[in-house]
Protein: DUF2237 domain-containing protein
Amino acid sequence: MSDTEHNVLGGELQPCSDSHETGFLRDNHCRHLGRDPGRHEICAVMTQDFLEYSREQGNDLITPQPELDFPGLHPGDRWCVCLPRWIEAREAGNAPPVVLEATSEGVLDELTVDELREYAAADDE
Structure:
């Protein structure tokens, strides 16, 4: 059995961001980990709508928190988003684009590849 984690397309899981330390392990990978109750498994490209929606739900990703070494996010940044929050945002019409190559195959227990493809980020994002 291989230790390689896979993305929703069946390939090797790619890093989500090269500019922010994201993911549950802060290793820039949106991994499926049993010890991550938030399920930070979707690599998403931040949009202003999603950032504002997330803040309204009590998770402020905009405001820098230097004490946590968190610079704050801006539209266009890539970030490992919690699976339940992404689903919630989709239902509210605020789901951010998804980087399929950097999204854990673990999300396929809640979403289909076709559903995710509908929100696939453009290659240049």
About this structure: Strands lie at 40-45, 78-82. The longest helix spans residues 48-56.
